[in-house]
Design goal:
Length: about 110
């Protein structure tokens, strides 16, 4: 799954050591650019957490993520876990394609379609 948005805030970084070695977790919030914008808290782990630490507020992001839910004491909790974070400037993403030439109809064509 993918989501695009603007970085709103960087939250705390957590780290520790587990059975598989050291780990690092960073949570950040983006705001989508839909008709009705939504804020989404996203969690990045290890290498992606290091990348998230370098982001600045207002950055345009494209996040590839997985959703994961788990049950604890009868309640369900859902995480949005980023596995790829891409940054881009507003000018890098454009709907214009300047490589396509303008269409000029040929008036000498006898076919009606």
């Amino acid at each position: 799954m993918e989501i695009n948005g603007t970085l709103v805030s960087l939250l705390e970084t957590n780290s520790g050591v587990g059975a598989n070695g050291p780990w690092k977790k960073k949570t950040f919030v983006i705001e989508t650019k839909d008709k009705f914008p939504k804020k989404v808290a996203i969690t990045a782990w290890n290498e992606q957490a290091d990348l998230a630490d370098k982001l600045s507020s207002g950055s345009e992001l494209k996040i590839s993520f997985n959703l994961e839910s788990r049950e604890f004491n009868g309640k369900w909790y859902t995480d949005v876990k980023a596995w790829k974070i891409e940054t881009f400037s507003g000018s890098a993403v454009s709907n214009e394609n300047n490589d396509i030439p303008d269409f000029i109809p040929d008036e000498t064509d006898p076919l009606p379609f």
